[in-house]
Design brief:
The protein is of the alpha/beta class. It is built from 19 helices and 15 strands. It has 3 domains: about 220 residues, HUPs (Rossmann fold); about 80 residues, Tyrosyl-Transfer RNA Synthetase; about 70 residues, Roll (Structural Genomics Hypothetical 15.5 Kd Protein In mrcA-pckA Intergenic Region, Chain A), CATH 3.10.290.10. A 6-stranded mixed β-sheet has the order 1-6-5-2-3-4, with helices on both faces. α12 links the parallel β5 and β6. The N and C termini lie far apart (about 60 Å).
Length: about 400
């Protein structure tokens, strides 16, 4: 379907949801030297696996000779994106935004190669141009080209208004600033493509339209599908919270386990989207049936963890899984908590992260889901007197040691 290696690769791996002008973008990409960006606001100290779909878009671009730009939203984070939200984001001060920005940028070093070469990635902060904007000149240059009618029709705005949920003038400006980001990147770096999740389609189209009205040239937009699991859950959201990319917020073991616990129906899709494994190997793995599909899940966990956390982290997590599940030993990579022993089992479950609260710990004990060194415990008042391996269900384990 596509002549360019870039769009052909995205298509065969399932990355494409919408493209503003498929033929025009294909011709541009086929000519070589395509520059494209994805923006990330600094609303948390880390990206999570829900962000991986767009990070992989940048990686695929670099793999096919294009130049990716990571745009950190040091400016737009101060406004807040209303897309997909029922209420305004909490306003953050400059210090918190700066701390998050410094933390987030480290995640990209695993996925992209940065430097001065023609296909080396760039990291840019939109505060460079947004913080210095003068209000009246900006309105005169940009505001007169923005259609309020079109803004009201965007899902991020329309849905809030239909639900009678407040939408501040601050948030209403977000898509204007994102559109202007695209224009600035086109002017500064000859960036011709903005990529993002499917919820960003309206904002991306606004940038394409603004560039045309300002005479900047033809720009393009591409979105990736919203990644949901086979049961309909949003990718990266679990009962225990977000699956963070930063090892300071989520252990290598827990990250590996997230991928190992992928539903059977998602294995092939996730291998295509989130690893670099050859498609022929993926086809063989996703064809496995019954218990054999677990081997494909281990391959997925190894490859995804190596990409985000490094080969050594993947090796340790794999070895820990072998020790824990196959050999029945306490793998050294399991999360470990230290308490003064003896300690109440409910406290130990909370301390190790196996339960979010004492109430949840008691419920798990009542459900006969808790084991200490392999033995089921049913007494909610039980004590743990010595270092032990704690388990909740078949897949969640941790070590308790003496403080």
């Amino acid at each position: 379907m596509f002549r360019s290696e870039f769009l052909a690769l995205l298509t065969e791996r399932g990355h494409v949801h919408q493209i503003t002008d498929p033929q025009g973008l294909d011709a541009l990409a086929a000519a070589g030297g395509l520059v494209a960006y994805v923006g990330y606001d600094c609303t948390a100290p880390s990206l999570h696996v829900g962000n991986l779909a767009t990070v992989m878009l940048l990686r695929r671009l670099q793999q096919t000779g294009g130049r990716p730009i990571v745009l950190l939203g040091g400016g737009t984070t101060k406004v807040g994106d209303p897309s997909g939200r029922d209420e305004a984001r909490r306003l953050m001060d400059d210090a918190e935004i700066a701390a998050n920005k410094a933390s987030i940028r480290r995640a990209f070093e695993r996925f992209l190669r940065f430097g001065d070469g023609p296909s080396d990635a760039l990291l840019v902060d939109n505060a460079e141009w947004l913080d210095g904007l003068s209000y009246i000149p900006f309105l005169r240059e940009v505001g007169r080209h923005i259609s309020v009618n079109a803004m009201l029709a965007r899902d991020s705005v329309r849905l809030r208004l239909e639900r009678d949920q407040p939408l501040s003038f601050l948030e209403f400006n977000y898509m204007v600033l994102q559109a202007y980001d695209f224009v600035e990147l086109a002017r500064r770096f000859d960036c011709r493509l903005q990529m993002g999740g499917s919820d960003q389609w309206g904002n991306i189209v606004a940038g394409v339209d603004l560039a045309r009205r300002l005479g900047v040239g033809e720009l393009y937009g591409l979105t990736t599908p919203l990644i949901t699991t086979a049961d309909g859950a949003k990718m990266g959201k679990t009962a225990r919270g977000a699956v963070w990319l930063d090892p300071a917020l989520l252990s290598d073991w827990d990250y590996w386990q997230f991928w190992r616990n992928t539903a059977d129906a998602d294995v092939g899709r996730f291998l295509r989207l989130f690893t670099d494994l050859p498609l022929a190997d993926i086809a063989r793995l996703e064809a496995l049936q019954g218990a054999e599909i677990n081997a494909a899940k281990v391959v997925l966990a190894d490859a995804a963890t190596a990409l985000c956390r490094g080969e050594e982290a993947a090796r340790r997590a794999h070895a820990t899984a072998e020790a824990t599940f196959t050999e029945g030993r306490a793998g050294e990579g399991l999360p470990t908590a230290r308490l003064a022993l003896p300690a109440a089992l409910v406290d130990a479950l909370v301390a190790t992260g196996l339960a979010a609260s004492k109430g949840e710990a008691r419920r798990k004990i009542a459900e006969r889901a808790v084991r200490v060194d392999g033995e089921v415990v049913t007494d909610p008042h039980a004590m743990v007197a010595a270092p032990a391996r704690l388990s909740v269900g078949r897949k969640r384990h941790a070590l308790l040691d003496a403080a």
